[in-house]
Design a protein that fits this description.
mainly alpha; Major Prion Protein; single chain; elongated; 84% helix; 4 helices
Length: 109
């Protein structure tokens, strides 16, 4: 390989690595927001993790976080819990930052 091909391969590897990390962060965020929502929905602690996994699965429906907001709003509405889309979006941001710190700190070990 020549230098140009080596650089190209390095950039491709970096892109792939970054996408993998982003996927892990987004999955962790979905789990964390699922646990947050489970608490507000009054879901028992022993069932909260299963609910969080439902939120992770819902996050795979489409790019972005609109699918999470839709699922949470439907579940909140079913239980009579009033929470705005804006509040959910803010919690998504907060939990994304927590997830980012958790994932990146686990890589440093």
């Amino acid at each position: 390989m020549n230098t140009f091909e080596d650089r190209e391969q390095a950039f491709e590897n970096k892109f792939k690595y970054d996408q993998d990390i982003l996927f892990k962060i987004n999955s962790r965020r979905a789990r964390l927001i699922g646990l947050w929502a489970a608490e507000r929905l009054g879901i028992a602690a022993d069932k909260a993790e299963a609910y969080a996994q439902e939120v992770v699965s819902a996050d795979l429906d489409e790019p972005g976080h609109a699918d999470i907001i839709r699922k949470l709003q439907a579940d909140f509405k079913q239980k009579g819990v009033e929470i705005s889309d804006h509040r959910i979006a803010k919690e998504l941001e907060r939990h994304w930052e927590i997830a980012r710190k958790q994932v990146t700190s686990s890589l440093a070990v």
